[in-house]
Fold this protein.
Amino acid sequence: MSLLDDPKAAFADLSRPEGWVLGVSVAFVLFLFVAMLTGALGPTYFLFLVGLAGMYALLSFGLNAQWGFTGLINFSVAAFFGIGAYGTALMTASGSPIAGGFSPLVGLAVALVVALALALLIGIPTLRLRADYLAIASLGLAEVVRLIVLNERWLTNGSAGLRGIPGFFDGWPVLSTFPEAMPGLRLEVIPGSPVILETAFWQASLNVLLVLAFAGAAYFVLRRAHRSPWGRVLRTIRSDEDLARALGKNTYSFKMQSFVLGSLIMALAGVFYAHLNLYVGPGDLDPITTFYAWVAVILGGSGSNRGALFGGIVIVTIREGTRFLNDVALPIDPAPLRLLLIGVVIVAVMRYRPQGVLPPQRELIWPSAVGGGGTPETPDSGVRERKGGGDDE
Amino acid sequence: MSEGALPKEDAVLRVDDLQKSFGGLAATDHATFAVERGTITGLIGPNGAGKSTLFNLISGFYEPDGGTVEVNGTDVTGMEPYQVAEHGLIRTFQTPRKLEGMTVREAMLVGPRKQPGESFLNLFTSPGAVDESESANLAEAERILEEFEIDHLATQPATDISGGQMKLVELARAMLAEPEVLLLDEPVAGVNPTLAKKLKTQIRRLNEQGTTFLLIEHDMEFVMDLADPIVVLDQGHVLTEGTPDEVRNDERVIEAYLGGGA
């Protein structure tokens, strides 16, 4: 049911939590917009935040494809993120100790290939075993990758990190000169506090464009995969792998595909990050990234793509929003509160809504098969009311 | 006549000298028998006789220490469960497996083998073929649910139905995989008598339509009524095989069940 075809029905079709999330999101966007117009929030910084949110959304998409779909426990999100970031940085950065100076497109390709190789390397020995082995191995892998990046100076520049990474669109026709070519704009909505849009702003909007392209593509692929027979096998494996095997599914192959897909999406987040930050260092591989991605997926609702998107945005809001708490006079330093706040949120969600804020609700059958010749007498809205009703309590 | 020595011209499943031990315990001890095409073959035996182990060996979940398993004349010994399934042997489990977050018809759709939509690439390169097979499978799933008289459950969450209904759904789903031989592990354990009767009717009907069954069951009345022939397993080997009447009156079977042993 598309929003454009029948807006009223589309809204009526929302479950209560969906309505809540929609309402809060709209209010939040309005709030940010007002903050921007009044000059309280720099527009360039705002776009940077959108970029970060897109990056976390990508990480949670990737983890969702592994954990949410198939139940694979991957504790090396940070490693695949780091591989993506270092992969493109080593190819493109002027300060790269090995190659350097290539087009970011080459960087993207190399990052994905290396991430693929790493995913296969860790998947081949562990995916045949029980689920826990992947968890243990990936935990180790994350640390191994981080230590290699930190210590193999000839390859990665060690703790100094890599500088001089170009923007993703450098060297592209039109887009590479776009930020400079755009005129500086001065908007004065409220007298006395002008909003100035300059080169940095246009640069940041290019980054947003890039992350929207990455995240949009990932979302499109995952959404289609999730409601396909392919996704159904993955969900069967998550519930009961033996059942899938007994029904003739090559579960090892399916798990490998899911693992590789998720890892590539995580690497994509890393590629974006390198071209956003223009510097990568071993600190970017700290396990905290893995932790954030897990929180985002569990918060949003394991197995739900839009939940992963929501979770990613919430993480960035908490991470960056707490910075503004500095402006408010508090008796204690708010920075350490950030992790506490995330902890409180996750405990609250687990206590009151263990399935996450936006769990997958719709029956996942290839859409045209349900709508078309298959079963016209059972509209999918009826299904979801029944399911959604059970979820709400 | 012992060791499952009935003459079988057209065996869809042939188990020959199968062995498996766990530590010092021979759970399957040179078991030999065959399942003739078109029959409902019962597999009975006292607790610990090795029935479930035998199922796991046949369906590829365990690797045998020795002996062979043939499905449709193909040696499937040591193959992965999914490969055994590809040769036409499908099994169910003793405790119904729950598929969280799926509706009943969704859970049914896991059944069909070789769906085009199970290839990740096809989802993007040939969505038309995916759509076609998904529509056909969905229609088929609903038809089978109707035959099982549980079509009213189609859009219920698969985890919210009763244990007996789960058994029915499991059987219905297994049929979507179009098995040549279907192994049922205690199909009526924990099922109320009405549903058990329903299951019996369904199994008989499916058998008449050409599916061969091999079933483990503790409910003697159920299995004696439904299955012919019956294979009796004791301490990992085939004690005897025969019609329900023959088995019922066999001294050795009675002794095995009463725990004679001495």
In short: Chain A has a mean pLDDT of 85. Residues 31-364 of chain A form a domain with the ABC transporter involved in vitamin B12 uptake, BtuC fold (CATH 1.10.3470).
